[in-house]
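ARCHIVE CARD
CATEGORY: sequence design from structure
SOURCE FIELD: tokenized fold
FIELD CONTENT:
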């Protein structure tokens, strides 16, 4: 992957270890990559390969009492590794947004979507309630969410998982973060909702120029969405390449194995592709 001034986020020599009664155990090592403006970087690898540890390192959400996080993680040139919690809280949600697998966990059941949307905006901006609500509605409209007014009045349990995930993405996008980390954002959804969520992420990328780190074990999703891909195995990056090169000419044995054993999306009776 090339390095240029479009790089928004740089990860250099990331090495994470956890303290165990037997001593230090390495979870990820020699992790190097960069995220470019308006590009989607796919992160693939089987369970336990270190994808979540890598993204939690970027967000500085690992338990520092139990873990050593070495290396450099810079956002627009600013070092994040070791930044005080207070500073990191300002960055999370505003400059780096996080979208998790199960959107239900991201919302509090007792408050309306609107309340939570507006409070999120107000935490990271100086907007008043009315302005925050307007921004929420504008963002929902700009990413084609239907009936924003009605959505804002709903409680989380009144919306489907797919719709909640789309609201979550609108919430993430509304403060125009430089980076969105989406950890398996479609895994819990049916095919129809997967498609809507992926379309929305792509829209956010193109409309706001957001860099997206898309973590997925689904190579169908990665092949449709990502510009570049990194493949992890046993806590290391074993291959990184442009998406076309990776799928057409995989070099590492593990990548070849992943491609051979990928789910048979394309062999279903009605070939399904994520047409964005
Ligand atoms: N809080 C933790 N404490 C100790 N070890 C951990 C912790 N979280 C993850 N690990 C270990 O770190 C390694 C990498 O895990 P990680 O969750 O990053 O994998 P992953 O690729 O995200 O897997 P999955 O796709 O299942 O989420 C694994 O060996 C895992 O057991």
């Amino acid at each position: 992957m090339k390095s240029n001034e479009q790089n928004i986020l740089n990860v250099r020599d990331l090495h994470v270890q956890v303290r165990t009664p037997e001593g230090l155990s390495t979870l990820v090592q020699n992790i190097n990559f960069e995220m470019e403006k308006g590009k989607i970087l796919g992160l693939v690898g089987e369970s336990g390969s270190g994808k979540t540890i890598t993204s939690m390192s970027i967000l500085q959400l690992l338990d520092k009492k139990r873990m050593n996080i070495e290396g450099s993680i810079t956002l627009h040139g600013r070092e994040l590794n070791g930044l005080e919690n207070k500073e990191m809280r300002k960055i999370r949600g505003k400059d780096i947004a996080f979208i998790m697998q199960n959107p239900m966990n991201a919302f509090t059941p007792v408050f309306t979507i609107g309340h939570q949307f507006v409070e999120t905006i107000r935490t990271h901006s100086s907007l008043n309630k009315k302005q925050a609500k307007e921004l929420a509605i504008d963002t929902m409209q700009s990413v084609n969410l239907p009936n924003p007014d009605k959505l804002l009045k709903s409680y989380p349990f009144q919306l489907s998982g797919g719709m909640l995930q789309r609201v979550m993405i609108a919430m993430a996008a509304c403060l125009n973060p430089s980076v969105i980390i989406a950890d398996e954002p479609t895994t819990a959804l049916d095919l129809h909702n997967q498609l809507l969520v992926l379309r929305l992420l792509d829209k956010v990328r193109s409309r706001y120029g957001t860099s997206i780190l898309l973590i997925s074990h689904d190579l169908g999703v990665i092949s449709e969405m990502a510009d570049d891909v990194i493949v992890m195995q046993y806590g290391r990056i074993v291959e990184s390449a442009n998406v076309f090169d990776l799928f057409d000419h995989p070099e590492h044995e593990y990548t070849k194995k992943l491609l051979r054993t990928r789910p048979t999306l394309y062999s279903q009776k009605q070939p399904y592709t994520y047409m964005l």
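CARD ANNOTATION: Residues 18, 27, 45, 47-53, 217 surround adenosine-5'-triphosphate (CB under 6 Å). The first strand starts at residue 7 and ends at 20.
SHELF: design records, drawer C
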